[in-house]
What we know:
- The complex is a heterodimer.
- Chain A is an alpha+beta fold.
- Helix content of chain A is 38%, strand content 26%.
- In chain B, 14% of the residues lie in helices and 43% in strands.
Amino acid sequence: MAVPESASADAAPVADADGNCRFRIELPEVPQRDVDALAAELGLLGTISQESLADQRVVFTLTTPESQDSIVAICSFVLDPDDLKITHGSAQTGAAEAKPAAEDPGYGLFEPEKTDAVQPAVATAAATAAAAPAAEARNPGRRATDKEGTGQESSSIRVGIEKVDQLINLVGELVITQAMIEQRISVLDPIQYERLLNSVGQLTRNTRDLQEAVMSIRMMPMDYVFSRFPRMVRDLAGKLGKKVEFVTRGAATELDKGLIERIVDPLTHLVRNSVDHGIEMPEKRRASSKNETGKLTLSAAHQGGNIVIEVSDDGGGLSRERILDKAKQQGLPVSDTMPDADVWQLIFAPGFSTAEVVTDVSGRGVGMDVVKRNITAMGGTVDIRSVPGAGTTIAISLPLTLAILDGMSVRVGEEVYILPLGYVIESLQPAAADVKEIAGQGQVVKIRGDYLPLIPLYQIFAIEPNFTDPAQGIVVILEADGKKAALLVDALVGQQQVVVKNLESNFRKVAGISGATILGDGGVSLILDVSALLRSSRQLNADPVFS
Amino acid sequence: MSYSTQTQAQTEAGEVAGKEFLAFTLGREEYGIDILRVQEIRGYEPVTRIANAPDFIKGVVNLRGIIVPVVDMRIKLNLGTPTYDQFTVVIILSIGGRVVGMVVDSVSDVTTLSPEQVKPAPEMGTTFDSDYLIGLGTLNDRMLILVDIDKLMSSSEMGLIEKMAA
C-alpha cells in the first residue's frame, strides 16, 4: 500500500465527539463517472464533500467513523489504491487545503469545511494533544495498530487476477499428478509399503485442502453485492414516498470476483428501476387491493452452466400498450402482434423510456440500454417476465466462467460425462415392465407412479453404448425448470467436485454441453447442460398441445 | 487481370519477407506455416470426443489446464492415413488468443524463406482453397505449400469459432 507511512504513523486522527475522523482523499486522474460513483459510495460511510485541484484531479473530504482501510477497500473497486493519497484531516493537510481555497473563488461553497480545516492548523498542538488520548480511550485496539503503522493494511493484498488464474491451473495440475501417483501405488503391497502409502494418503489430503483454498480465492458470495442494497432501497423508497420490503435470497451463492465487480452497476440500476417504476404508490396499491408495502426480491442461484440473478417486484408490471405506442413514435419496427417477450426487449433500446416525467432517479432512457450492454459484455443475457398488475421479474443470466461444481460422472460407451449434482434427484435401474413405448414418441419410464420421458444419452450424442435397454443400464432422474426426465446412461462412475472450464474460450458452443472439466487422470470430460437436454427431449416428444 | 495478380503476389511476398516457417507433411505434400503461430509441438494424446462434431474435429484435450480442441488435418484434407501412435504429432497453434491443436503426419524443420523464394499460389492443384494460401515456397528441390493458418483456422469451414470474430 502506498498510503504514506507518515499518514498512519503520525497517528493523530482528528476525531470529533462522535468518534468521527476527517480524511482527505486525493484521487488520481479518473473519469468523472468514476468520481461520481466513488462519491456516492463513500457518502454511505459519512459526510463527504468534493473539490477539484488545479490539475483536474478531485479531492474528497470525508468525515466518517470508519477506518482508513474501509475507504481504501471501497476505492479499490474503481482505482488502484496505490494511486490514492489519503491523509487524516490533521494540521498539515488543513494548511494544504486552505491554500488552494484562497486561489479558487468557487471554493466558497465549502466555506464551513475550510474553517473547520484551518482550525486544527492554528491549534495544532492543542488538537492533537486532545484528540489522541481521546481516540485511544475510545478505541484502544485501533490505536495500537495505528502505532504499528502497517498492521491493519497487511490484512489483505492486491494480486493480479492472472497470477491467481495461473495458481489455480498449477494446483489443478498438481491434483492430477497426485491422482496419478495414487493410481500407481494402488497396486503395491500395503504391508510392505505401508509407510509410503501413509505418506501418499497425507499428500492426498493436503492437495485437496490446497485446491479448495486456492479455488476460494477467486470466489466471493453475492452477499458482497446484495448487502449494499437494503439501505439504497430504503432511502429511495423514503424519497419517493413508497413502502418497500426488500428481500434477498441466495446471498451465499458464490460468483467469480471479476463478475461480482461488474454486476454491481447493472444491478443497482435494476433495483432503482423496480423501486421507481415497478412498485406503485401505497394509495394505488391499496386501490388494487394489494398490500400497501411492495415487495422487492433480489435472488441469486446456480442454474445449469449459469448463475441467474433476479430482481423481481410485485408492482404494476410493464404496460404492453405504452411500450408499443412509444416504440411506434420512435419509429422502431414493431407490430401489435409481437410476442410479449419481444415487446419487453424493446425497453433495452437506446433512448427508450415510457416515463412521462424525468425524475432524478430515472426516466432518461439511458439505463436499461447500458444494463443490457454491460451484461452482454460479460457474456450473459437479460430476460424480462412481466404480468400486468402482478409485477416484473428481470433475470440476469451469467455464464460460469469459473465455478466449482459438485458433479456426478456417468459413463456411456467409452465416454464419461459430468452431470451437475444439483439437477440429479436419484438414479436407479428400472424394471423392464416399467419402461413403456409411446408410439413414435420415444419411451417413458414409470417411477413411483410418475411417467417420465426417457432421454437416451447415446442417441443424442451418437455414441455406441453398452446398453440400449433401460432395464440393463441406469437411469438418472433429473429435474430442471420444474420438469423431470430420466436420462439413460450405461453406468455411474462417481461423484466429485469439478472445476468448470469454458469450452468456448478455444472452441465454439456445443449443443447440450455447458462446459468441460479435467478429470483426475488428466483427461477432459464434458459437463452436460441439463436444462438444454430436457428442453430438447421435450421438443423430440413435442406434445401438440404445447406447440 | 494479370497485372492485379502480379501486384497481389508482390504484396504477399512482401508480407512474408524473411519469415520463418515450420514445415510439416500431410501425406506426400509438404506444408509450411508461420512459426510465430506455433506455441509448441506435442505427441498425440487421447482426446475427449465431442458429440455431433465433424470428423476432422477429433475432440478436446487438456493442455496444462486449458481445454484445447484438436483437428486432424489429414482427415480435413483427405491426405494420408489418420493413424494415431507414438509418432503422431500435434502442433499447438495460438491464433488470435485462441489455442488449437492440429494433427499432422510429421514435422520436419524450420526454414527461413526470403520473399524471392515465395511464388504465388496457382489457382488449383491443392486441396486447399487458394484463399488460405500465402504462396508456394521453394527451397532447393523442396516445395512448401505456405498456408495462412490464421485465416484457415478462423474460417467458418473449420467451424472452430462460433462466428467470424466481429
